[in-house]
Design brief:
This protein has 364 residues and is α+β, with helices and mostly antiparallel strands. The chain has a domain of 117 residues. The chain is built from 12 helices and 14 strands.
């Protein structure tokens, strides 16, 4: 059974439940000393029938959702964990890390470490330079091409035949050299293909220009200002991985801070952490990857609700890791999961569309 069918059946099942049959008991998320305020469903005066049905089903049915968190009007309203996960447990964010690296690049430009997204990457990474597949067009590959995954190099994680597919990269001793040696298959800027090495190179530029490792840079300029302290970097590869190639591990609450940062136009506690203009540029569609709008390492995803289209900015990661930001609804939805390399990781989209929207768009 494919993922779409599973999601459809899931929604049908929860829609058959009635309010009086539910065992799930909602409670307002706990107020902790982590910079978050919490609120209750009751304070929003919404019909919570679908919310109860959803979590009742998630309590009794097998699934691979690890956490669900919803922020409305700047307060955590829903926070539920499954399968041994909890508010203190950090989760492997997978490619959600890419979107956070985009934020870090905006900070690097604002601080003067990097000049412009239009600068060629060779300005900041002279070595390693290409030793194979020499092509003068490689000199025109810019930071913007990295952020939009449009370098033109043969790097496509979703094509096993691609020479730059991420699993092949992970086996190499020198990721950067291998990436620079890839053949050009398109003119830089012409075609976008999903390429993890674009984010790795972006992080490497931040590191080299600032003189800090990417984790040190992120800690000083993003995580400390956001009050994020339980964060670490790692990778599933058995080989030693270069710092710029590592992925973030964060709690669901800290992921939500990233989403709220976008809603707040780059501010947190009245401090401008990342320029509003950078976030606007990052979440403006600049290209398409497999037909989907893409900005600077952020997805722009339309949700169709009746005759209305609701736009979301989304950071997504394999297995069901999501930060979804809904500016028009003043809402952030966060999910973590373990449905790796499975269509089951798309279940959060159904939850948002068929549970959260009908519940909260009718908020009084």
């Amino acid at each position: 059974m494919n993922g779409k069918a599973i999601i459809t059946i899931f929604i049908v099942l929860i829609s058959t439940l009635t309010y009086g049959q539910q065992a799930y008991q909602y409670s307002q998320p706990t107020q902790l000393q982590d910079g978050w305020e919490t609120g209750s469903l009751q304070s929003l005066e919404v019909d919570s029938t679908l919310i109860y049905a959803l979590f009742n089903k998630l309590q009794i049915e097998e699934h691979k959702v690890h956490s669900v968190l919803l922020v409305k009007h700047g307060k955590i309203i829903i926070e539920e964990y499954f399968g041994g996960n909890s508010v203190e447990v950090s989760h492997d964010l997978r490619s959600v890390t890419k979107s956070i690296i985009s934020i870090l690049m905006g900070i690097a430009i604002d601080k003067g470490f990097v000049g412009s997204v239009d600068d060629p990457i060779s300005k900041y990474i002279e070595k390693p330079g290409p030793n194979k597949n020499l092509d003068d067009r490689k000199k025109s590959i810019t930071i913007k091409h990295l952020l939009t995954m449009s370098t033109g190099l043969d790097c496509n994680d979703w094509d096993k035949k691609s020479k730059g597919q991420e699993d092949k990269i992970y086996k190499k001793d020198d990721w950067l050299q291998y990436f620079m040696d890839l053949p050009l298959v398109n003119e830089p800027g012409a075609v976008s293909n999903y390429c993890t090495m674009c984010a790795v190179m972006t992080a490497e530029i931040i590191s080299r220009t600032s003189g800090m490792t990417i984790d040190e840079f992120a800690k000083q300029y993003l995580f400390i200002p956001l009050g994020i302290t339980t964060v670490n970097w790692g990778h599933t590869s058995n080989k030693v991985v270069m710092p710029s190639g590592k992925r973030l591990y964060m709690t669901a609450r800290d992921m939500a801070k990233i989403g709220q940062l976008l809603l707040n136009n780059g501010t947190w506690n009245e401090e401008q952490i990342v320029p509003d203009e950078w976030l606007r540029q990052s979440t403006t569609s600049r290209t398409k990857i497999t037909g989907m709008d893409y900005g600077y390492l952020w997805w722009i995803i339309p949700f169709k609700v009746n005759d209305k289209t609701i736009k979301a900015y989304a950071a997504t990661g394999n297995g069901g890791q999501y930060i979804m930001v809904f500016p028009e609804s003043d809402m952030v939805a966060v999910f973590t999961g373990g449905a790796y390399n499975s269509q089951d990781d798309k279940l959060p989209f159904a939850i948002v569309k068929d549970i959260f929207f009908p519940t909260f768009l009718g908020e009084k």
